[in-house]
Design goal:
This protein is of the alpha+beta class. It contains 13 helices and 19 strands. Bound molecules: 4-amino-1,4-dioxobutan-2-aminium adenosine-5'-monophosphate and magnesium ion.
Length: 434
């Protein structure tokens, strides 16, 4: 059997009327009669219905059709046809197939499976339609993030994973051995990006971060990816402007380029279409007023819980900034508001639809003595931060930045209800397999 040109399902539009070979896996099978049989093939790039019709295909294809099972790896031969009713707009008038590798008793069947079962079979679950769509959206988001910063001349500077100290508090640190020493897995690349920002002006880092969060929520992963820009001379306001332009760019690019996937995920994109232009900004105290009306038990000065974030965001049809959180609930590196020493020049961006905090950031403390004092107040060892303090000794300038959790962004844009599906192999509290 001579192979015709091997093409991808996503390229079928260029091969109408041509004989081709598709290589992929059996997604679905239907035999309506002895004379006509349907095979839905997936090849990673898309799905294509392949039709075997007696008289138009080899007899052996109909006779051996029963050998095909869900996820059998196959080559399918046939002629590409335009078919507006079929999902991708094309189908294959198939002549024959060749089994490359069998698949016996594939565990994930069209029936409902429990979450635990699916998570245990994550390596296979990834092949399902919805999971396939989510990871494609994720890939688009990653590219949109990079594009946003690259066209603005930001320099991508990677930051280390092994670090000697905490960035986001000591309670979620992962400790590990570093030869004869201790090290911690990075919670954020921020401190290092502050150093590279002093070398390049505008920088970003994008990599995995780790937090030993001992809680099971739909927003927390143990290992997640964060994109973190840092800009010399930017103040809190510049920082919020950068963040709103960034989030708008990412959302608009995804709804333009991944419309098919968002349809599979049944995401209402009319809401996402609204995510552009200026986002509302609330002072922490204004946000507290809103929260107290629906949660009278909320204590002034406390950090927001997930339900509080949902209360605030439900009042807006765009993501909303909350800024000037009390300094007591924020990290050591946050700059104090010169007009109010109880407040920090911090900002969080809360997503729409109850997805909660998407971005955390703010203006950094740039005064040497104040920063040293803060490090001590937070019971951190100044020795661990000698290099970080140096940045305040040699030409210190105002600077700001933020971090967006990639998985939070994926969950929000795709509309899924748990971050565990926003990354191929999630690490969760109580789960690090497969
Ligand atoms: O608010 P966070 O802790 O801020 C920082 O790490 C700063 N150093 C970032 C910066 O200014 N460069 O985390 C930033 C974002 C959150 O808004 C959230 O989107 C995400 O990271 N995030 C998590 N995502 C998934 N699982 C977790 N456990 C997360 N913790 C934070
Ligand atoms: Mg935060």
């Amino acid at each position: 059997m001579s192979d015709k040109k091997r093409v991808y399902v996503s390229d079928l539009k260029d091969y109408v009327g041509k004989e081709v070979t598709l290589s992929g896996w059996v997604y679905n099978l239907r035999a309506s009669s002895k004379k006509i049989k349907f095979l839905v093939l997936r090849d990673g790039s898309g799905m294509c219905q392949c039709i075997y019709f007696k008289g138009e295909c080899e007899d052996s294809a109909l006779e051996n059709f029963g050998e095909l099972t869900q996820e059998t790896a196959v080559k399918v031969f046939g002629t590409v046809k335009e078919e507006p009713r079929s999902p991708g707009g094309y189908e294959l008038s198939a002549t024959s197939f060749e089994i490359l590798s069998p698949s016996v008793d594939y565990p994930i069947t069209p029936k409902e499976h429990g979450t635990d079962f699916l998570m245990n079979h994550r390596h296979l679950w990834l092949r399902s339609k919805k999971q396939h769509a989510i990871l494609r959206v994720r890939s688009e988001i990653v590219n949109a993030c990079r594009e946003f910063f690259e066209v603005r001349d930001f320099v991508m500077c990677d930051t280390p994973i092994f670090t000697p100290s905490a960035c986001e508090g000591t309670s979620t640190l992962f400790e590990t051995q570093y030869f004869d020493d201790k090290a911690y897995l990075s919670q954020s690349g921020q401190l290092y990006s502050e150093a590279t920002a002093m070398a390049h002006g505008k920088v970003y880092n994008f990599g995995p971060t780790f937090r030993a969060e001992k809680s099971k929520t739909r927003r927390h992963l143990i290992e997640f990816w964060m994109i973190e820009p840092e800009v010399a001379f930017n103040d809190l306001n510049d920082n919020m402007e950068l963040a709103e332009d960034f989030v708008s760019h990412v959302v608009q690019r995804v709804i333009k380029n991944k419309a098919e996937e968002l349809k599979v995920l049944e995401r209402d994109t009319t809401k996402l279409a609204n995510v552009k232009g200026k986002f509302p900004r609330l002072h922490y105290k204004e946000a507290v007023e809103i929260i107290k009306k629906e949660n009278p038990g909320f204590i002034d000065g406390d950090d927001f819980g997930a339900p509080d974030e949902t209360i605030v965001s439900s009042h807006f049809d765009k993501p909303v900034f909350v800024h000037n959180y009390p300094k007591a609930i924020k990290a050591f590196y946050m700059k104090e508001d010169p007009n109010n020493s109880d407040e920090s020049l911090s900002c969080d961006l809360l997503a729409t639809d109850g997805y909660g905090e998407l971005i955390g950031g703010g203006q950094r403390e740039d005064d040497y003595l104040t920063l040293l004092q803060k490090i001590k107040e937070h019971e951190l060892d100044p020795k661990d931060f000698d290099w970080y303090l140096d940045l305040r000794k040699y030409g210190s300038v105002p600077h700001s930045g933020f971090g967006m959790g990639l998985e939070r962004c994926v969950a929000w844009i795709t509309g899924i209800n748990h971050v565990r599906e926003s990354i191929a192999f999630p690490r969760l509290y109580g789960r690090n397999r497969p």
